[in-house]
Amino acid sequence: MLRTKIYDHVVLLLGVFLMMGPLVVAFMTSTFDHVLIHKEGMQVGWGGKFIETYSTVLTQQGGFTGEVTGWLMTQNSLILGVGFALGKIVVSMLAAYAIVYFRFRAATFCFWVIFLTLLLPLEVRILPSYEVVQQLGLLNSYTGLIVPLIASATGTFFFRQFFKSIPNELVEAARVDGAGPMQFFFDILLPLSKTMMAAIFIIMFVVGWNQYLWPTLMTTDESYFTLVRGIKQIMQIMIGADIPKYNEALAMAMLAMLPPALVIIIFQRMFIKGLVENEK
């Protein structure tokens, strides 16, 4: 038993080292001067330029218009991530609710049609989606960034499985007490789904935060650029410089990883509980 525990801890420590090692080196390197990084490569230690580098990345205006800051791109990424996650939760919950509780004849068929859309990733349907958004005049807008992406087969599947695990006796009791479909959804089903909603929110927030292809296609106005796209934009500008500012690029990458990590840390208990309850 003791050997098993020691072995488990060694494996966990190796995993932590492999996962965190590159991040720690990248963070340390971002505190050094870009000239030193250019000469000697990645650094291990404290360079002393933490405040200067990160304040420059967050507040210095740049881009082709000279008006875009890292803070603005962070806000855009936050709006996209939160809107993406909340939109998917709402649409997925309503779809799963209709499939499980309304029991119409084509419910199973509709579910499998929704499920089969997993075979059509964004890259496959991106051109027709772009055409629709363009005709609606939603280019360079938060609505155009978020709404076309909120349909989710994965979210519908998880909520469907969760709703099916709720005892029928609860449904019958609500019906006997005179609760209609809307009252049952808001007063009973919604409170029971908190952990599942938290689990789906975490997954979808990270996916939305890391979106690159869709924001790249949808936005030409720099005021709507996201942080992930901003890193690429900054790197393109850096290539033309005499000495690329590697420290600022690494600082931007570290900032891009921070919000998803905080969301996972804050909601990790609800995330695990939501997934475990879904397996019952």
UniProtKB/TrEMBL annotation:
Pfam families named among the record's database cross-references: BPD_transp_1
InterPro entries (alphabetical): MetI-like (IPR000515), MetI-like_sf (IPR035906)
Recorded topology in the membrane: Multi-pass membrane protein
Keywords for the protein's UniProt record, in alphabetical order: Cell inner membrane, Cell membrane, Membrane, Transmembrane, Transmembrane helix, Transport
UniProt record, GO biological process: transmembrane transport
Compartment(s) where it occurs, according to its Swiss-Prot or TrEMBL record: Cell inner membrane; Cell membrane
A single cellular component GO annotation: plasma membrane
CDD domains per UniProt: TM_PBP2
Entry superkingdom: Bacteria
Domain ABC transmembrane type-1 residue range list: 74-267
Listed transmembrane segments: 12-32, 78-102, 109-130, 142-163, 184-209, 249-267
Subunit-structure text: The complex is composed of two ATP-binding proteins (UgpC), two transmembrane proteins (UgpA and UgpE) and a solute-binding protein (UgpB).
Family recorded in the similarity comment: Belongs to the binding-protein-dependent transport system permease family.
Described purpose of this protein according to its UniProt entry: Part of the ABC transporter complex UgpBAEC involved in sn-glycerol-3-phosphate (G3P) import. Probably responsible for the translocation of the substrate across the membrane.
PANTHER family according to UniProt: ABC TRANSPORTER PERMEASE PROTEIN MG189-RELATED-RELATED (PTHR43744), SN-GLYCEROL-3-PHOSPHATE TRANSPORT SYSTEM PERMEASE PROTEIN UGPE (PTHR43744:SF8)
Full protein name: sn-glycerol-3-phosphate transport system permease protein UgpE
Organism of derivation: Parasedimentitalea psychrophila
